[in-house]
Amino acid sequence: MIQKTLILLKPDAVQKNLIGQIIGRFETKGLKVIGLKMMNLDDKLINEHYGFLADKPFFPKIVSYMTAGPVVALAIEWEDSVATIRQLVGATNPIEATPGSIRADYAKNIDNNIIHASDSPETAEIELNRFFNVSTELFDYTRTLAN
Length: 147
Hints:
Blueprint: E1 2-9, H1 11-15, H2 19-28, E2 32-39, H3 43-50, H4 59-66, E3 71-79, H5 81-89, H6 102-106, E4 115-117, H7 121-131
Antiparallel strand pairs: 1-3, 1-4, 2-3
C-alpha cells in the first residue's frame, strides 16, 4: 500500500553536513520525496510533537537538542514507506541499530540520534499535517525518468 510519511533530520544531522547523504539513502532505495523544507522548531511545535514525553525528566534535554539548530523535514511517499524507512533508519538507540542503518552509521547516542521517522501510518498523517501544509507543500507527481 502506498503511504506518506514524515522524516526529520535533527539538528545534529544538519550540523554534521549529513543532509545530502541521508536523503541520498532514501532516493537510492527508490523512495519518492514529495516535500522538503528546512525550519527552526519553536516551543509550540516541539511541545506538540514531543508532548507525550513532557512529564519525563529528560524532556528539557529534548527541547534543548531540537532547538540547537534547524531541522530538515521530509515527506516521503512509497509502498509501505513507514516500515521501509524505519528499517533504513534503525533503532532509536544507535547502539541497538542494525549495522548499515542511518543511526548505526551516523548517530552518536540515544540523545543525539540524528533522525526521526514516523512509527505508523496513523502517526505519519498527524505528523505530516504538523510539519507541512499538505495542500500546498506536498507534491503529487509521476516519475518520468528511470532510476
